[in-house]
Amino acid sequence: MSKERKAAKSRSGGAQSVRATIIDDQLVFRMGLRLYLTEAMPEIRVVGEAESVAAGVSLVERERPDLILMDGFLGDARVDEALGQLREKRPDCRIVVLANYPDPKNLALAASAGANGYMLKTLPPAQIVEALRSVMHGSTWIQPELMQQLYSEFANGPEVSEAGATADVDLTPRQLEVLCLVAQGLRNAEIADHLTISEQTVKTHVAHLLEKLGVGSRLQAARYAISKKLVDA
User: Fold this and answer.
1) Domain range 3-142, its CATH number among 3.40.50.300, 3.40.50.2300, 3.30.565.10, 3.40.50.720
2) Where are the domains of the chain?
């Protein structure tokens, strides 16, 4: 057993409790991802693979996975449509999108459809593992560079309104600071370092922000803040 797997197994207590499926039309990528996860994340057990949305939906309905790893560009299907079909079969499953190339609009569609994670396939394997563990523990993980691209896209584009939110949001100065950093793609730990506050305090601020803005994710908060010019581009 490799040192990496021993370390991972030690962290997970030796348990393989997360059932995962991979939906991707590239066989080589599916094989490589499965092999790497077997080594690096013994807490994950890949229970099936599919090469299309239709096959993936059938697989998810049959295997009832806890985690779905899916390609961001599956055939002719839009990512939000694919996510919607998968969510219909497994509403509580964690879904992570892995894309071949950066596309802010695709990321926005995925986020609006309830993706729990979004990253490029070229992300270093160790960072993919870190991201997946974060998602499995209940967080939403968006690759920071992609979040920054989305920030630029919405900052320079036409105004976009977010459902459930109003222009007159009463935010404290500190909440505005946190919102600006969230919109730039910073994670909680990075925001904590930047503002010299604890990570738990950042989490509290973010939770209050989502509630005040009437949105369900950090990405939606960032999009809303940019469209309403609550933060500087």
Assistant:
1) 3.40.50.2300
2) 3-142, 150-227
Q: Where are the alpha helices (DSSP H) in 2-66?
A: 3-12, 27-40, 53-63
Query: Are the C-beta atoms of 74 and 189 separated by less than 8 Å?
Result: no
Mean pLDDT of 85-95: 94
pLDDT band at 44 (very low <50, low <70, confident <90, very high): very high
Mean pLDDT, to the nearest integer, of 178-192?
82
DSSP secondary structure, 113-177, as one string: TT-SEEEETTS-HHHHHHHHHHHHTT--EE-HHHHHHHHHHHHHS---PPTT--S-----HHHHH
